[in-house]
Amino acid sequence: xxxxxxxxxxxxxxGGTDTWPQALGSIIEYVGAVAGNIVYQAPGGxxxxxxxxxxREDLNxxxxxxxTGNPYARAFEKIRPNEIAVGNTLIDAEAVRHSAFYADICxxxxxxxxxxxPHASLHERGGIGGIALFLSRQQDEHVLKATTRLTQIAPHIxxxxxxxxxxxxxxxxxxxxxxxxxxxxxxxxxxxARGTILLLNPAAEALLKRGDGLFxxxxxxxxxxxxxxxxxxxxxxxxxxxxxxxxxxxxxFEGALPVYRPSGLQPYLVVVTPLxxxxxxxxxxxxDDARVLVHIVDPESKTRLQARxxxxxxxxxxxxxxxxxxxxxxxxxxxVARVLGISPNTVKTHVxxxxxxxxxxxxxxxxxxxxxxxxxxxxxxxxxxxxxTASAV
Length: 393
Prior knowledge:
The chain is of the alpha+beta class. It contains 15 helices and 14 strands.
């Protein structure tokens, strides 16, 4: 197989996990190895995977179960992504050949030495991963040639792995997740395993744009934060706990909390829901695929919608509508003036005009009128967004 053919085969493999074993077979032949794999060893072992090339399936399972902490793996942790390491130059190879790992995994597959190239996306967050090629004792005599050949195709392998990861993310249908949270009438925020905001629905975008109690912090990555430090810490803790629960961990979990607002309006009720991973392919393990759905309920949102209906019915101005909405929540005139940043006399003028247009004669009657207006709300849908799937109830 010549260089052009091997490169074409590598890029064909980027389309899906099931095509990688064949590509690995071609890489093994080109380099001059006996077997190989693409491996990801997650911190703690949960979510680890191995895509084999000419390896014994029964020994793959045994490896993931017992031997991910073998001397080669520990040595490869220190190698930088896209550098190629020769295993026997980094460890006490003679001692390894007297170990259970060698007897159970290496010797039955004629593995005498290993070449390993870490991949950046598989080498993050405490994990280790990349492509490993295994040499027999006879092939090890030509280890320099094998290293040179792997070096020639290494950039293409790295790009193909990146393409596989990207194709997998596209395959999970992020557009579907966006459509699902868009139908929720309240604000909804989808957060990934790192605490980064993935998606916002229009209600959340509008709520966060107001910046009244909650906002998007961009100190490291886009994250949900509260203006009050104590509340912000409590919210971050709830999200961290939800992610632990989503991944099957056992931890105390505070699933709901109030978020007080500088404006003095009623606090938001924030509900944090862990969403367990739904595996689609081996590549999902790199991201854990754990998600958290943050549902932000604004107790006054219905009143604002009702006030908008009142505006359409009685032709209120924008200013009159804002005042009517706050009256509808039970605020008195001084409170309305403070929230809107206008004088009490201006508030009285707007209230008087609302009375004249609607025919009511008191603030209590105006509040009752607003509360009596029906709102045609969107149907709510219970969604399981961790794997971008949904079930309507």
